[in-house]
């Protein structure tokens, strides 16, 4: 089989052959973290799901102690919060290509990497079901009580980088034109674009970051007393050029991150953003401030947003150094960084598997860190109607719980969905809330 050429911002071009162990490993990292987040059921049910999109507006969190801090509550959110379903024709083309790479991927992994991989992907490698869900727009999610959203962004300083997805262009050349609608509004202009995977999973409620941020600000201005909303930003620097004339994805260097901060700041305004400087205060480091519980109170944070930067390259590279360049304590930055405990800039941690990392999450929360965990991973819990992971996530005290199923009516037809206990937009944290904050 001819090698496939794939690129990331860190490795401009690399040929991968199925017969080469490291090549299989690299391709499968790309596949698993990116491509195999689709499902046939997802596409079929996407047509039906809008009829079940009625969601009752949640009551805003209230009746909490005056001094309660934002690290002493727990909220619910989604990931890939902006995404629309992929066209089934694109799905089939991509799946046909990547199914050839299944092979003996796990068998070829070193034991330590295999253990880590299985922690983050504990339910197997089912290529057809990993993203079997469908999200509405931000307004509906926020009105439903979600207080955490994720936005994936691509750097496009000149514009027009993603206006003609390679998969659609290839299908059109084959005479196939009955494709899912794809808006290019604003994509010809310079600025960050919002999509999951260039050329493959590109349908989105918000084509540009400006549109996404404007939607957030408009909603926030209409609900000025909302508790702070966590926004996770993933800087996408991964290209998977399996189709002819695939998009050229740019790296996130220090200039790109400066532009990203400026775009967030220019649309929301400094007064609506809780920044690392706000938490660091007069402490020697951000981490020291976090360990001294120097987070703002909920009351002082009403109507605001907290941005967290997630690793790029599908988690294979952190990309943290570029964001820290010239800002080692995140001074002047608009976003916190995903980190490991103990680093000078550490404030936010990811422990997605609350069943495996229960003790680590509890310890981190008690120490003062913000933690995100997941109530369901790659839709498995919804498929089998298993509440164990969501119960573990809530029990752990992780401040942010991410789900793909925040309301009844999942695509599998099971009763599974996730609701924050207490029926409000937040609740007192079961691990570190003060005694006068009643946990519901």
Automatic annotation (TrEMBL):
<dbReference type="InterPro" id="IPR032075">
    <property type="entry name" value="PI-PLC-C1"/>
</dbReference>
<dbReference type="Pfam" id="PF16670">
    <property type="entry name" value="PI-PLC-C1"/>
</dbReference>
<dbReference type="GO" id="GO:0008081">
    <property type="term" value="F:phosphoric diester hydrolase activity"/>
</dbReference>
<dbReference type="InterPro" id="IPR017946">
    <property type="entry name" value="PLC-like_Pdiesterase_TIM-brl"/>
</dbReference>
<protein>
    <submittedName>
        <fullName>Phosphoinositide phospholipase C, Ca2+-dependent</fullName>
    </submittedName>
</protein>
<dbReference type="GO" id="GO:0006629">
    <property type="term" value="P:lipid metabolic process"/>
</dbReference>
